[in-house]
């Protein structure tokens, strides 16, 4: 059976376990949220950078599309006649290095160099072509070897005539292809199978070793921008180190909240409430005997608790806790209700007494009488109800009017554990209880030299002087029973006659007792 220390230890361990789990969850959850948040931020930054680069380059190329018709109108005209307009057009298109006119596959006029006569195929092997084309290549005429974008607009059906616009991307690449370490290590402009990075140049293959590639394609022109990054996940994971202090703070905070919250939920008072709701408390009874007639004249109702979570819990553990946690009234109400449902187990005799322990606070504001009306008198009991008031409680809540009302309802009042607590002669004279129950500590002192032995005689004399019926608890030996009878105490209760038993076992015990009593000489 669980001791008070064991119960307290158990629930302390439960609270600690819950707090440890909460601490770990708070720590992990904080890091998890920070990881997800940082990963989302990283992904957003990658998307924003690539979108920005594509947008900037679109705005650079868009004027070429706008001026396409004007440039194509110049194809075929003598270079001397259109060189100046061609140069003005190139200046207006700020990022353009040169505009070249091609006739029959020959570059014959350049905004930068004037009249020429060069096979365009020798400059750009993919030109001329009958379809518009955007190339990422190197310059072979002005700044030889520098990276350029070439935009080709055909002016004839066979593609031999057209306009070739060279754009100097080396000047603008540090703006439109700007990286953002450590999140984005490199940004690449991709046209067909060619890739350009500001610090590397043009390559035929994009080197993404150790990085992930995040690609965004233009919807207006045939190019894309690729961001090379270790990845949002990896960087978010790396950044978690800086979030450890925050995770620790949140862990401590939620642990403290859990400790406060579990004070009520993981407490023994909650267990008692659960026990009442789940009807875990078992009703037991111990017979009270008339020693002169060797006849059972009543029982005291007792509680036993086999808690399915912690095992058997002793009454001297859960009763004091129930009293301190203001749960003794619900517990008593439970006893009254459950006993009333089992009255058929006892003799249907108005002289048969059923004693139920009640704490003094239950008398306050008529609570006890209200509970009795709802849970006891509603079943029309035949047996005599005895309310046993535990003397260890302060008796301030029990006044003469309440005592009178108990009498009006034919309810007897007993003072339980008399001699151990708060009652006094003045209280006895005011309440005038029907019964005094001598505590087992005094009964066990009979036949010894203990001080309690003398107190026993005083209690007996007091009860007899006040004409109060006496019941001795804890009678275990024939010597004690004989002594009590010799001193006028004939109502006895204790292991000498019977141990506490489940209510359902009482009819069988009573039948056996009657048989043994009838067979006695």
Describe this structure in words.
- The chain is of the alpha+beta class and 521 residues long.
- It has 3 domains: 4-62 and 233-263; 67-172, 2-Layer Sandwich (Beta-Lactamase); 268-514, EAL domain (TIM Barrel, Alpha-Beta Barrel), CATH 3.20.20.450.
- The protein is 44% helix and 24% strand.
- The protein contains 16 helices and 21 strands.
- The protein has helices at 4-66, 68-72, 79-92, 120-123, 169-176, 232-265, 268-277, 315-324, 328-340, 367-375, 400-408, 425-431, 440-443, 451-465, 478-486, 506-519, and strands at residues 96-103, 106-110, 114-119, 133-138, 147-154, 162-168, 186-191, 194-197, 201-203, 212-217, 224-229, 281-290, 295-307, 311-313, 353-358, 384-390, 412-418, 435-438, 469-472, 491-492, 501-502.
- The chain has an 8-stranded mixed barrel, surrounded by 5 helices. It has a 6-stranded antiparallel beta sheet with strand order 3-2-1-6-5-4.
- Helix 1 packs antiparallel against helix 6 (232-265) and helix 9 runs parallel beside helix 10.
- The longest helix has 63 residues, at 4-66.
- The two termini are 41 Å apart.
- The mean pLDDT is 86.
- It holds the Pfam family EAL.
- It is a multi-pass membrane protein.
- It is an enzyme of class 3 (hydrolase).
- Its main location: membrane.
- One of its GO terms (cellular component) is plasma membrane.
Segments where pLDDT lies below 50 for 5+ residues?
none
Rg for CA atoms: 50 Å
CATH architecture label of the largest domain: Alpha-Beta Barrel
- What is the fourth-level CATH superfamily of the largest domain? EAL domain
The third-level CATH topology of the largest domain is TIM Barrel
Proportion of β residues? 15-25%
Task: Based on Cα principal axes, name the global outline.
Answer: rod-shaped
Output the strand order for the largest sheet.
12-13-15-16-17-18-19-20
Which whole number gives the mean pLDDT? 86
Largest sheet: 8 strands, mixed, barrel
Helix content: 40-55%
User: Total domains, how many?
Assistant: 3
Number of helices: 16
Distance between the termini: 41 Å
Structural class comes to: alpha+beta
Instruction: Assign the CATH class of the largest domain.
Output: Alpha Beta
Subcellular location: Cell membrane
EC number: 3.1.4.52
GO molecular function: cyclic-guanylate-specific phosphodiesterase activity
Organism: Kluyvera ascorbata
